[in-house]
């Protein structure tokens, strides 16, 4: 019910706008014509000029001119120009004078002759009111436009003046008259404050609610369709975003577990592709840093080991070398003073001492070289054990 009343309110607003448009157009035509007369023009001059040009103003049928006191001074129509007024003021013109003095113009409707009434002012040289004009225009165009707002089926638009005197009705369907007699209809009334016209809109209940139900159905259908389309678009959009996000998340978990050889692959050329590329570069830099750090740790370990070896082995080796050298010297002196029977045995003993000395020198050199190790590399050997490949200066 409220939706239908809102529909009636919108239609009423459109009708009122059409009414004002017609009245405004007539007022502007009359104002343009009156502006041509010099200030202080006599009623006789104005009346004669308007009588000769009345047909040139669209729809103008009649003009009544009052003086500042509201006394009629002349009337102009297509047939005659009448100056034969008594000059006595009558109450009939009070409403025109009051309404016009308030806003400079007034709109009303003549129910008897079905004419649009437009009242206006004219001022003298001192900017005081000199005359009132009450102009009567045909309403054919007004009612013709109102028919365009009528309902397609069994609807009715009516105009009333004060006292609800009917001046126009749009319905011609006998079936609607039957509905009116039965009281089965919806209606709304609104008074246009500018023209004083009362606008009534009626429609049978059956048509009113059938249209409302159709509108509700259409509204429900299009609302549902919009929601489905929105959800579909949202689903596709989420799929486009969700897949690369999931790949990034899974890749981060794998790399976080220690597998720095994993690479995140996103084929679509978008922001996620750039993010995955940056992430992979970060992992490569991390691997490089980790490798350098491992090498430094290996080098430090070997350095520490060489210090220990030098301390633990070098001293005994030095003692062995000194003993071997001393043994060689003693053996050389013994060999020179001994007979042939013991020379071979002594020579063998001397060669053994020389070998001990030579091997001790080799060990000493190796210990010295350990201090100068560069780029140690740990590799897996055939049986799974680890080997350190070293490079000396």
Keywords:
393 residues, alpha+beta, Beta-Lactamase, four-stranded antiparallel beta sheet, 8 helices
Description:
With 393 residues, this protein is an alpha+beta fold. Among the domains are: 2-154, 2-Layer Sandwich (Beta-Lactamase), CATH 3.30.450; 297-392. Helices cover 56% and strands 21% of the residues. It has eight helices and twelve strands. The strands form three sheets. The chain has a six-stranded antiparallel sheet, with helices on both faces. It is rod-shaped, with a radius of gyration of 59 Å. The mean pLDDT is 77.
CATH architecture label name of the domain at 2-154? 2-Layer Sandwich
State the major sheet.
Answer: 6 strands, antiparallel
Average residue pLDDT: 77
The side-by-side strand order for the widest beta sheet comes to: 3-2-1-6-5-4
Shape: rod-shaped
Computed structural class: alpha+beta
Q: Which superfamily, in CATH terms, is the homologous superfamily of the domain at 2-154?
A: PAS domain
Identify low-pLDDT runs: none
The quaternary structure here is: single chain
Helical content stands at 55-70%
Write the element-wise H/E pattern from the N-terminal end onward.
Answer: HHEEEHEEEHEEHEEHHHEE
Percent of residues in beta strands?
Answer: 15-25%
Please give the number of β-strands: 12
Q: Helix count, per DSSP?
A: 8
What's the Cα radius of gyration?
Answer: 59 Å
Q: What name does the CATH topology of the domain at 2-154 carry?
A: Beta-Lactamase
Ordered list of secondary-structure elements with their pairings:
Elements: H1 2-34, H2 43-53, E1 60-67, E2 72-77, E3 81-82, H3 94-103, E4 105-110, E5 115-123, E6 129-138, H4 140-147, E7 156-161, E8 165-169, H5 174-182, E9 185-191, E10 198-204, H6 205-256, H7 271-337, H8 340-370, E11 373-380, E12 386-392
Antiparallel strand pairs: 1-2, 1-6, 2-3, 4-5, 5-6, 7-8, 7-10, 9-10, 11-12
Helix pairs in contact: 1-4, 6-7, 7-8
